[in-house]
Amino acid sequence: MIRFENVTKRYKGTVKPALNNVDFEVLRGEFVFLVGASGSGKSSCLRMILREETPTDGRVVVLGRDLRTLTNRKVPYFRRHVGAVFQDFRLLPTKTVFQNVAFTLQVIGSSKGFIQQTVPEVLALVGLAGKEKRFPHELSGGEQQRVAIARALVNRPQVLLADEPTGNLDPATSVDIMQLLARINAGGTTVVMATHEAGFVDQMQRRVIELRHGEMVRDERHGGYGDTSSLPSLAPEQERGAAAVAALTAVLEVQREAVAAAQAGLDPTLANAEDRADAAPGAPEPSSAPSAEPEPEPQPAPTPAAEPPAPAPRAADTTGSQDTAPATAAPPDESAASEDSAAAEKAAASAKKTPPASHTQPIPLIDLAELDVAELGLADRLGLDDSEGDREVGPTS
Questions:
Q1: Tens digit of pLDDT per residue, the chain (397 long)?
Q2: Measured at the alpha carbon of residue 127, what is the angle toward residues 124 and 100, in degrees to the nearest 5?
Q3: Which parts of 87-206 are beta strand (E)?
Q4: 2-9/19-26 β-pairing
């Protein structure tokens, strides 16, 4: 049915070949998985089977025809026997479901009666009966892929090629598509599918051909996907400190439950502690440091009474003295007079003891009644006497 004979494929501008000496054979009615990492050569194999590419070296034989010797004019006739399903559906957006499926038959010149009979049968096979008049944008992703499969099957091909048919679908829809492909294979159609879905490969246990860097490394009759280290892992990474955060959260939850129980009166000890705390809201919080004794405030030094004391404090002091020793208190009038006279005498004595500085002159006393201000000079107006020839105004250094 399909045979690769030491096939090597090199693309222009690349040094390493996409396929290197690949050799295998697919029998009629088989279901074969092509597995491998991205860039391993799976899609190149499918394009050669469909005759979109030709090998650089070796031979590709499909349905008894050597595709290297097949002329371009005969390629459309050859492709009538090979159906293809792609990851991106490749539907005509302006045509309905019925028209997309019928388009394949119209290209090869099928009669209108044959189209009207065959298209509904194929749509019923893929589970799209009753949706013939829908447009692609009105369908889900799984339904669009079913339309693509129906279009590939409408001409009843002997070989069905599927390049990542479940790559854009959710897991539940992917299961439906895989079950549909299994039913198609059970009807006698040879299916060759390139996939990364390790779960489907392991469950179905069909033939597996594994490619790695363009070379075939495994051909197993009933095998699984094999090495899945190249597939991305979706397991969440454990964050550091997650266990500590969970433990702290549990402790805080227990503390909140204890406080709630105390407020509800379930624990008398905690309730009494809460009552004592509420009864003394202004109590100072205990401190671990020893309390230091307050330092005595410095008393002001006694100064000579240059001004008479204010009467209010004197009255307060007198009142306090009357409370403590009323028999020895002096009359208020006589004590005030004696204090005023003593303050005046001390002020006069301090004035005599502080003579003016040596570099200044005392301002002479002038009788203002006999003074004619209009006839005075500048120095006389300022109160300075220049009779001795001293014309300095103000202090000098």
A1: 999 999 999 999 888 999 999 999 999 999 999 999 988 999 999 999 999 999 999 999 999 999 999 999 999 999 999 999 988 889 999 999 999 999 999 998 899 999 999 999 999 999 999 999 999 999 999 999 999 999 999 999 999 999 999 888 888 889 999 999 999 999 999 999 999 888 899 999 999 999 999 999 999 988 888 766 655 555 555 555 667 677 778 878 888 888 887 777 655 554 455 555 455 444 444 444 444 444 555 455 544 444 444 544 444 444 444 444 444 444 445 555 566 666 667 666 655 555 555 555 555 565 656 666 666 666 666 656 555 555 555 555 4
A2: 70
A3: 159-163, 190-194
A4: antiparallel
> In the block, which residue shows the tokens 């860097």?
213
C-beta separation of 97 from 128 below 8 A: yes
Q: What is the DSSP string of 137-162?
A: GGS-HHHHHHHHHHHHHTT--SEEEE
Give the distance, in angstroms, between the CA of residue 83 and the centroid of all CA atoms in the same chain.
46
Give the CA distances from residue 318 to residues 80, 308, 324, 326, 342, in Å, rounded to whole numbers and listed in that order.
130, 16, 10, 10, 19
Among the residues of 38-96, which ranges form H helices? 42-49, 75-79
* pTM to 2 decimal places: 0.57
* Residues forming CATH 3.40.50.300 domain(s) in the chain: 1-81+157-226
Torsion sign over Cα 170, 171, 176, 181 = positive
Identify the H or E element spanning 212. Answer: strand 207-212
Quote the crossing angle between the two packed helices 242-263 and 268-279, to the nearest 10°: 80
Class of CATH domain 1-81+157-226? alpha beta
Rounded CA-CA distance 272/353 in Å is 75
Distance CA 119, CA 103 (A): 10
Q: Computed over its alpha carbons, how large is the radius of gyration of the chain?
A: 56
- Please classify residue 224 by burial: count the beta carbons closer than 10 Å to its beta carbon, then call 0-12 exposed, 13-18 middle and 19+ buried: middle
Separation of alpha carbons 282 and 67, rounded Å:
98
- As a dihedral over the C-alpha atoms of residue 240, residue 253, residue 282, residue 277, rounded to 10 degrees, the angle is -140
Spatial separation of the C-alpha atoms in residues 2 and 160, rounded to whole Å = 12
CA-wise closest residue to 8 among 63, 55, 68, 66? 55
